[in-house]
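User: Structure with fe (ii) ion, C-alpha cells only please.
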Amino acid sequence: MQTKEKKGNKFLNRRNFLKLGLLTTGSALTASNLINAAEKQGNDSSSGLPVVGAPIQRYVPKKYDHLLSGALDGLSDNQLKAHFALYEGYINKINELEGRIKTFNTNNTDTINYRGWHMEQTSMLNGAVLHELYFGNLRKGEKEPKGVLKKMIDRDFGNIQNFIGHLKLVGKIAHGWSLAALNYRTGKINVYGLERHNLNVPMMVYPVLVLDVYEHAYMIDYGTDRKKYLDVFIANLSWKQVEERLEKALSIPFGNAVTT
Ligand SMILES: [Fe+2]
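Assistant:
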C-alpha cells in the first residue's frame, strides 16, 4: 500500500504533467500516455528533474475502426475512411517536420525552409490532436449531458439548448473547428471557433468537446449542407466522453494565478 507521502508526490506529478502538457489545444495528444508512463516510473529524486516518464519519440496514428459499419448515424464508411486518411496524413507530416527541425543547423543563415517547417509544425500537430479529440467524442446513444458537465453548462450557458446553439453557430461561421473548452483563467466553459488548425487557438484552455466543420468532414455525405451535418454531429456526440474530459480538466487548479 502506498504511504500518504507517496500518494501526495504522485498527485503532484500528475498535476504538474497536466499543467505542463495540457494547457494548450495543441498539446493534448500525448498527455495521457505521459501521465501513465510517469505513474509507472515513479519519482526520480537523483536527477532533480520532474519525472517525465518515457517520452514518445514518434506520433502513431490512432485507429477509429469502431466508428465504422453503422456505429454512427448519418456518417458513412466512405466519409469516415476519407477523414481517417486525412488525419493519418497529419500524423505522418508532424513526424517528418519534427525530424527536419531537430536536425537543422541553427548556424545556417538561410532560414526560409526552417520558417516554413515551424509554421507547418503547429498546423500539423493541432490537426492531429484536434482530429483525435473529434473522433474520440463520437459515439451514438448518449442523448444528453449529465453530472458536473450538465451543471457547468447550465451555469455558464443557462441550459443545454443554448450551449448547443452556440456550438452550432460557431460551427456555422468558423472555417475549421468549433470547440468547447474549460478556461483556466476563469474556470468557465467557453465555445471557441478556429479558422484553421493553428489560427485563433486559445491559450490556457482544455478542450472537452471538439467539432470538425471543415468541408472534408461532411462533403461526401452531405455536399455543402453543413447545417444537416451539425445536427448529425450532435446526434452522435458522446456526452460521456466530454464529461470525462471535463473531470480530468477540473483536476487542475484554475484562476488568476495561472498566468503569473
Ligand atoms: Fe477533419
